[in-house]
Give the backbone structure.
Amino acid sequence: MPFIYQFAAGAVAGISEILVMYPLDVVKTRMQLQVAGGSGPQYSGVVDCLKQIVAKEGASRLYKGISSPVLMEAPKRATKFACNDEFQKIYKDLFGVEKLTQPLSILSGASAGCVEAFVVVPFELVKIRLQDVSSSYKGPVDVVRQIIAKEGTLALYNGLESTLWRHGVWNAGYFGIIFQVRSLLPKAQSKAQQTRNDLIAGTIGGTIGSMMSTPFDVVKSRIQNTAVVAGTVRKYNWSWPSLFVINKEEGFKALYKGFVPKVLRLGPGGGILLVVFTGVMDFFRTVHYKE
C-alpha cells in the first residue's frame, strides 16, 4: 500500500484514541509533576486525582490542553505507523530477509519512535505547560507566544532528547510485543477474530511499552515543565542525569509516577490504535484495489 494510505490510517487511529483516553493523560501528567512535600496538590492515586481535578477545577479541566494533542495526534500516530512499516521494508532489505522477525520489529519500532519524537516535541511541550496545575496560560497559542518571547524559539524543542528516549523505547516495546503476541494467537478466520487479535496484541504491546518507557516519560514531563532561563542551570535537563536525581531525591518509585493512568490509557489505547489502524487500512485496500 502507498505511504499516504499508511499515513492517513495512522492519523485516524491517533485521533480516535486521544478522544477516548485523554483525561487519563491529564491525570498522568499531574502525577508526574507532583513532587513529594511540594506546594501543589498531592494526589494519592488515579481516582483521587480525578476527584480533586473535578471538584476544584471543574470537569472541563480533564480536557484542558486537548487542542494541542488533537493537532499532534494526526501527524504523530501517522508517523508512528507509516514509518514503522517503511522501516520494516528497509531493514528486511538491509539484512536480506523476506519475513519480518521480532528483532527487526523492535528495531523498526525504535526507529519510527525516534522520527516520531521530532514531530511531537513542540506539541508535547505545549500540552505539559497547559496541564500543569499552576498553569496560567490562556491556551496553546499563548503558550507558544510566551515561550518564544521569554525562552527563545529553540525552547520549543526543550525535552527533545528525553522524548527520543521515550518514543524510541515505547515503540520498540509496542511493535516488538505486537509481533510476538500475534504469532502466538490463533490465526484469525474472520473480521471479528482479527479485531480481537489486534485488540489483545495492541493492549499487551501498549502495556509493555508503557512499563519500559515510563521513567523517561516522567523525566520528559519534568524537563518540559521547566522554563529555559539564560545563565541558569536547570535541575532537570538531560534524561539520564535527571533519572538519577529523581531516584536520589524521591526514590525509585518516583520514576513510575503516573504509571497507572499511563498504562490505563496506553494499554487499551494501544489496542484501540491497532484496531482502528488495521480497520482503516483494510478499507483503503478495498478502495485502492477497486481502482
Notes: The longest helix spans residues 191-224. The mean pLDDT is 87. The two ends are 13 Å apart (CA to CA). DSSP finds nine helices and no strands in the chain.
